[in-house]
């Protein structure tokens, strides 16, 4: 038995859930912040939980990397034989029905590089407690089903830390001693520890206010480093729009007197919904036209909305345990998606989200890390903040909406809050509220929570001219996933329509129905296979299936290329128009990949060129939709479509298609570029302008791939004259792999060296470089002064982008990419296990690689696994990959 076997981290199981042995009546915290050692004093008022099965259970408080100074029970120092301390807990024996514990610990936030618990960033203090960071601050019942009221007193040097923030309302402040001041906060709402937050530092504040529909005035405050104050206006507008939307659409009002957002540049994730004091990655707060792209602006608006919406879906009603994470995340992502759809373009938003789902979540579902929306086990909960929990979870909530309709969905939501406000609940509670409010049985539907994997829905159609019927035989299967060899049928809503030969919608009536019932129908597939017969169909229709992407499934229907081109031109569902183009391009690419593997000559099918030309020249169409039609699927997405991954063949095929389309549509791209070139002079964040910039820049990308001097000059001119980052970045991206790229990159770095968020873009572009020496470039860039391995954004921009998105670069035949990743994972694991673990996921596709690469990847994984001191985070990814 090696060392790892003896101490291998053990999984936590959903079925082992037990209610807490003790509950908290209140907690009072005092922080004495200091440069070398911070003292945290906590006063816990506890009582036994009558629902706990053991009446004299020990009190086990979670705690990690804490130095215990003292424990007082009911005001008296406790003798050390009444408690045990180990690496992960403080256990107190022999307590009565209730107790008051006063615990003092010391911590060293300045040494905390994991960015969990209390840590420092650019000289200021911040916290991140979700999921289990609070235990790195003080001993506590660090689980979401223990909710209580918090008061927090912060004491710190007045000049270094003029701003002292925590959750709730500021109730007092004063001078503590000569140089130190204090502020006291009271949060009137019960909350679990993961929603605790503290911020201390030199920060500037943008102030505004929002008056709720019942007339309460809420102070809005965004705190950033002083030089960033001018970049907060878009975030502030986004807050106000979110507050208004949640009132209008969900009837939900904000509940505290102030709502604070703080931006920090060192942050593991996007942002955190701490009660009344959201803490954000600067990436999702700071934006001005010269430094942020349209995508960044949308990201800020969406993440602000997401965290704001959590105040109800997450905070007022929270999760019983971390297996229920999607209860709050899936629901809140669905809410922010709908918000963005209402603020921008619904069709474009839906397509963007489906692309993410397909590229990232379908890949996860097909990987060794596949897990259900409600997992039943985990080794490290931080590994489960995944696209499955978030994005697939949002699709599950969207399906309730699709099945119940907007009104029925809202009834379900209202009942959910009526029943559970102030509680920590489960996904079953959510399903029950949805079902009970509508008399709808969600029993089978709940398999979406328990079964992993992406279902495949196969449709076979048959037109019967004599009987005027159109029959759809629909069947479903779901591939095995770890621990789940067989699946039961899902309850799948399938929205569809039928088009006649002229492209018009056919009113639909199913056999047995008394009347026509609209042109888009939602069929409910609940069996392994089912037949649906439409009557009164006089000629062969073209089916438009899975409208709006009504379920997170893979659709298998044998459209001809003519039919796909027809749908691209005529479908009334914009999602399906794009989807038809995507299907057509995917099929062509799969053929090209096969041809590239067989070293055959590649050629471009005429149907594709014609369909794409028609789309490009359709001046009535939304330019954003056209831009998306011309955005080729990612290499990684293509890798997930083939049985065996040959990264070079995928790259060759995709690059061939890009250049071939550029050649075939050269004049159309040129014309379209010119049409939109001057169309958005002064930068405005508005859907119409975003759409124009998007299509213009797609055209620029194709044109520069022709390597003609005139088009390269076009890109250079755009690069030099751009007044916004969208255009500047697009031009730089177009140039980067050309001989002219080096100068452009140098100019860009020179201009933006002091703006870390802009420099992230510079790193990302180079991490995606398609030339053979990409890995050497990445290595060299690690030495650049703007790169810091301790900053997650930098690691994501350079290392994670290279390892997880530069398919042929990372999966080099010689295995150098794998060795590099392994080396970086080990370095990072010592600093920040969450970030290391994200990088480790780059191996998730290894089993599908062609044999040479598969062997190389396996060697790298086995070397990693041999390290006995891996974090639980990395251990879980590596061991599941090797299982
Ligand atoms: Zn969230």
TrEMBL record:
It comes from Parachitinimonas caeni. Residues 38-195 form the Aminopeptidase N-like N-terminal domain. SUPFAM superfamilies: Leukotriene A4 hydrolase N-terminal domain, Metalloproteases ('zincins'), catalytic domain. The gene is pepN. Belongs to the peptidase M1 family. Its EC number is 3.4.11.2. Residues 562-882 form the Peptidase M1 alanyl aminopeptidase C-terminal domain. Residues 235-448 form the Peptidase M1 membrane alanine aminopeptidase domain. This is Aminopeptidase N.
């Amino acid at each position: 038995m090696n060392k790892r076997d003896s101490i291998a981290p053990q999984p936590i199981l959903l079925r082992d859930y037990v209610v807490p042995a003790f509950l908290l009546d209140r907690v009072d915290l005092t922080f004495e912040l200091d440069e070398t050692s911070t003292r945290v004093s906590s006063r816990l008022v506890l009582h036994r939980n009558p629902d706990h099965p053991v009446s004299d259970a020990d009190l086990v408080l979670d705690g990690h990397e804490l130095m215990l100074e003292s424990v007082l029970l009911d005001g008296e120092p406790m003798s050390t034989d009444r408690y045990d301390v180990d690496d992960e807990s403080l256990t107190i024996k022999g307590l009565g029905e209730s107790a008051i514990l006063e615990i003092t610990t010391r911590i060293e936030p300045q040494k905390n590089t994991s960015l969990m618990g209390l840590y420092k960033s650019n000289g200021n203090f911040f916290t991140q407690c979700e999921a289990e960071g609070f235990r790195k601050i003080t001993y506590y019942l660090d689980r979401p089903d223990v909710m209580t009221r918090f008061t927090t007193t912060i004491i710190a040097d007045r000049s270094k830390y003029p701003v002292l923030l925590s959750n709730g309302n500021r109730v007092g402040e004063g001078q503590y001693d000569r140089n130190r001041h204090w502020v006291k906060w009271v949060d009137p709402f019960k909350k679990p520890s993961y929603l605790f937050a503290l911020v201390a530092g030199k920060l500037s504040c943008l102030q505004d206010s929002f008056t709720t529909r019942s007339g309460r005035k809420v102070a809005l405050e965004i705190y950033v480093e002083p030089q960033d104050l001018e970049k907060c206006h878009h975030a502030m507008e986004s807050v106000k729009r979110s507050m208004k939307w949640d009132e209008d659409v969900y009837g939900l009002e904000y509940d505290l007197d102030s709502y604070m957002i703080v931006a920090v540049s060192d942050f593991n994730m996007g942002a955190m919904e701490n009660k009344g004091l959201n803490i954000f990655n600067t990436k999702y707060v700071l934006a001005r036209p010269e430094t942020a792209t349209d995508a960044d602006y949308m990201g800020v608006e969406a993440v602000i909305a997401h965290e704001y919406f959590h105040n109800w879906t997450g905070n007022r009603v929270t999760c019983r345990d971390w297996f229920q994470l999607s209860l709050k995340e899936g629901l809140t992502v669905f809410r922010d998606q709908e918000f963005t759809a209402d603020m921008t373009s619904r069709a474009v938003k839906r397509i963007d989200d489906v692309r993410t789902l397909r590229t990232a979540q379908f890949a996860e579902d097909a990987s060794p890390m596949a897990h259900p929306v409600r997992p039943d086990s985990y080794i490290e909960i931080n590994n489960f903040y995944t696209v499955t929990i978030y994005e697939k979870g949002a699709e599950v909530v969207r399906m309730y909406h699709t099945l119940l309709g907007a009104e029925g969905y809202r009834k379900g939501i209202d009942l959910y809050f009526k029943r559970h406000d102030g509680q920590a609940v489960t996904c079953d509670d959510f399903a029950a509220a949805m079902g009970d409010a509508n008399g709808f049985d969600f029993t089978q539907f709940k398999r979406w929570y328990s079964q992993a994997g992406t279902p495949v829905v196969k449709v076979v159609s048959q037109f019967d001219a004599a009987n005027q019927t159109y029959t759809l035989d629909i069947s479903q299967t779901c591939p095995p996933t770890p621990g789940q060899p067989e699946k039961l049928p899902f309850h799948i809503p399938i929205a569809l329509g039928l088009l006649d030969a002229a492209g018009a919608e056919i009113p639909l009536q199913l056999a047995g129905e008394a009347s026509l019932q609209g042109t888009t129908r939602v069929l409910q597939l609940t069996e392994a296979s089912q037949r649906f017969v439409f009557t009164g169909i006089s000629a062969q229709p073209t089916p438009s299936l899975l409208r709006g992407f009504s379920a997170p499934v893979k659709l298998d229907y044998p459209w001809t290329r003519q039919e796909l081109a027809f749908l691209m031109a005529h479908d009334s569902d914009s999602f399906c128009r794009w989807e038809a183009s995507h299907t057509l391009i995917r099929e062509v690419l799969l053929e090209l990949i096969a041809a590239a593997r067989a070293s055959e000559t590649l050629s471009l099918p005429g149907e594709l060129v014609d369909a794409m030309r028609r789309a490009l020249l359709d001046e009535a169409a939304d330019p954003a939709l056209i831009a998306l039609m011309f955005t080729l699927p990612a290499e990684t997405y293509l890798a997930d479509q083939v049985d065996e991954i040959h990264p070079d063949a995928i790259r060759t095929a995709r690059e061939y298609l890009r250049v071939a389309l550029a050649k075939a549509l050269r004049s159309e791209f040129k014309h379209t570029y010119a049409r939109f070139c001057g169309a958005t002079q002064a930068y405005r964040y508005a859907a119409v302008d975003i759409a124009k910039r998007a299509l213009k820049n797609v055209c620029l990308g194709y044109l520069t791939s022709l390597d003609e001097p005139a088009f390269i000059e076009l890109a250079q001119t755009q690069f030099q004259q751009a007044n916004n980052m969208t255009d500047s970045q697009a031009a730089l991206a177009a140039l980067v792999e050309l001989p002219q790229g080096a100068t452009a990159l140098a100019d860009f770095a020179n201009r933006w060296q002091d703006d870390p968020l802009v420099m992230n873009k510079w790193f990302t572009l180079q991490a995606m470089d398609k030339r053979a020496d990409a890995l050497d470039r990445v290595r060299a860039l690690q030495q650049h002064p703007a790169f810091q391995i301790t900053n997650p954004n930098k690691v994501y921009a350079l290392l994670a982008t290279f390892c997880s998105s530069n398919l042929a670069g990372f999966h080099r035949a010689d295995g150098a990419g794998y060795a590099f990743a392994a080396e970086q994972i080990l370095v990072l694991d010592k600093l920040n296990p969450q970030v290391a673990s994200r990088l480790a996921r780059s191996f998730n596709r290894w089993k599908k690689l062609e044999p040479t690469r598969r062997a190389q990847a396996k060697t790298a994984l086995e070397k990693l696994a041999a390290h006995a001191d891996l974090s639980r985070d990395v251990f879980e990814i590596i061991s599941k990959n090797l299982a």
